[in-house]
Amino acid sequence: MKVKTALILCAGLGKRLNPLTLEKPKPLLKLNNITFLENTINLIKELGIKKILLNTFHLKDQIRDYLNDKKFNISIDIVSDGSEILDTGGGIRNMINNSKENNFLIFNPDTIWDSNYLKCIKQMNEFFENNKIKSILLVVNKKLSFDKKLNGDFNLKKNLLSKNTESEYIYTGCQIFSRDLLNNNQKKIFSITEIWNELIEKNNLFGFDSNNKFYHVTDLEIYNKLLKSY
Q1: Using 50, 70 and 90 to split pLDDT, how confident is the model at 29?
Q2: Which of 106, 104, 89, 88 is nearest to 186 (CA)?
Q3: What is the pTM of this model?
Q4: Which of 12, 134, 142, 187 lies 20 to 30 Å (CA to CA) from residue 61?
Q5: Which domains does the chain have, with CATH numbers?
């Protein structure tokens, strides 16, 4: 992998998992006795990436203490959102400002990542490098989603993403993102979907099909189902 640094989004409030997330940040919830965060870190390590930045806001001391206790064998820097939550785009910008790298592999930890994703993420990275693009999202056909209530986010055709009422593909929570994409957006607090929508208008948002069964901790109901069946 030419991408050297991964970002993990850990600042969210996790409201759809209340009351569990009133006392514990969502990345520290467990499935099969492994936290969502550890699951994500393990995959990043398997990809050969050496540096992680993760952002915090909600119950941030718990995440800091967890990382100190676990002592993962990889460089991890915590970047706080500060006094207010910055949303996904603002959180990504804040982390990128703490790095000199140009391209980043970004993860949401509420997807259950495992070694089945290694091949497709490496292939996605190859596509990113070979085509000299600025952004690519790992997506999956909604037929492969454990949570059958999830709607599609995009359509995918020849590795280009678009949106309409019949969107068949779900964003998995993994993307490769270039810092150049933030040049025309000076907002402090914003959603990363603003950048995606701008790229779609230019026919320039790329996608890569994971083809994996997709397990995402959408809400408390799905989490309880996963605890019983995963």
Answers
A1: very high
A2: 89
A3: 0.96
A4: 187
A5: 5-229 (3.90.550.10)
